Amino acid sequence: MRQLRGQERAITANRSTSWSFADAFVAEDEALRWARERAREAGLPSVSPGTGGALRLLAATADAKAVAEIGTGTGVSGIYLLLGMRPDGVLTTVDLQPERQQLAKTAFRAAGFAGNRARFIPGRALDVLPRLADGGYDLVFCDGDRLEYLDYLAESLRLLRPGGLVCFEGVFAEGRTVDSGAQPAEVQRVRELLRAVRESQELVPSLLPVGDGLLCAVRRG
Q1: Contacts made by residues 203-206, CB under 8 angstroms, sequence distance 24+
Q2: What is the number of structural domains in the chain?
Q3: Can you name one GO molecular function term for this protein (predicted)?
């Protein structure tokens, strides 16, 4: 890598500082901090505050009443989605590990959400998603197995109403997505997803530089 000159170093440093500031802009309450701590204890990644804020904004913009989430974790992303959804909205969240969903239930209650605001479905996403209603969702958030992201995209196109949103977490893969070196299969799969979303005639895409990269797209009407 070539050595950066003074002005380039300043620009790079300022950009890094700005991104860090933007990612920490959203303040988190006790329920979110509790859920995030449970994720750390379990060795699970959770969305950054910046990514959570973007999800909350997108759910609110879509006036979302029905949201599907792939990857419940300990409830960090789910809280953000619920905060943006309509007061009568229901989050359907899928995870392979029921014990994680129990932690998420506790976090949702601590955040003040009634029990009927979330539907927890344990199981593999590609087994569960085909059972969900066609065109029945305003937003689908994908934070599961990166090797299955293209399959999630196909299911999301079926699940979303016209004008609905699909979002994929972690598409930067900690910088590996744009690294020219040899990469594992999950990174290759993310690259395929990025190409598919960008080239799709059914979607209007954008790649948001929050957290580890949030790929978003609106399904055309």
Answers
A1: 203/166
A2: 1
A3: S-adenosylmethionine-dependent methyltransferase activity
